[in-house]
Amino acid sequence: MKPRERRRGHFEVLEAQNRARQRKAANVARQAELKEQRTALMGDPIRGVTTPFIKSLDSDLPPEATTTVETLSHTTSSPSPNEPPPSPAHATDEAHLNYCLSKSELINSLEYSRSLSEPLIATDREQADPAMEAEEAKIHDLGHKVATEAISRIVSLANASSKERTRANVQRIIDTFGRHSTDNHLKPKAPSLQSTYSTIAEQKPTPRAGPDTGSSEVQIGILTAKIRILADRYEGANRNDKVNKRNLRLLLHRRQKLLKYMEKKERGSERWTNMIEKLGLTEATWKGQIAVQ
Prior knowledge:
By secondary structure, the chain is mainly alpha-helical. Helix content is 58%, strand content 0%.
């Protein structure tokens, strides 16, 4: 073989190798792009998608709460130096309060305490001093405003511990997803053909003795709230917390099993759709392998 032909053959081999590397790089880039698209479609297996209901679990505010001038007044500077200092959260804006209190109970108690502490009005109006009565009423109003602000801070979940917030969120999940309340407006899954033509008599469900705390959707909601707490603690400087990582993995797999069971039983029903939309769960939370990095 002549030297010119030998060099030509060598250049052809180099070009073929270069084209092979380019094809490989293009395939690797395409695979990475497809993997990112599948990951985006599947969603986050730990957190899922953030929904208004999930935000309400984190902020302790109802999903329909909006920011207005009145609510901003509780987090900005006070309009007068005689009024109490601003509070980071206000109990009148929250749907759930600490110590198992309801919003109506708090308002009624504050009104009752206001009526008990009102200054007495003189029965003999001829000897009464209107200026002094007006001053006493002004002092009483200011004292009641300070007491209302203090009690609002005490019962606010924004100032509560993590344990108390979790308890309130669990109760909120039970009220939202419990079948004692969802059976009134959500239809169950339609019966299958096998059950329609079955000769076995259908048994009537046992009446509930209290709130539903054991159905799959309630347990999935409670596990989702606990998973978000552990995921927040695991991020950042707590990456080496092996115990927290193991607990997070156990909760994720437990929720995955319940989701697979409910998908088999309630797939396509209003219960399933309501739970998935409110909790922001994606297919990655119950399909495939869930790995905590």
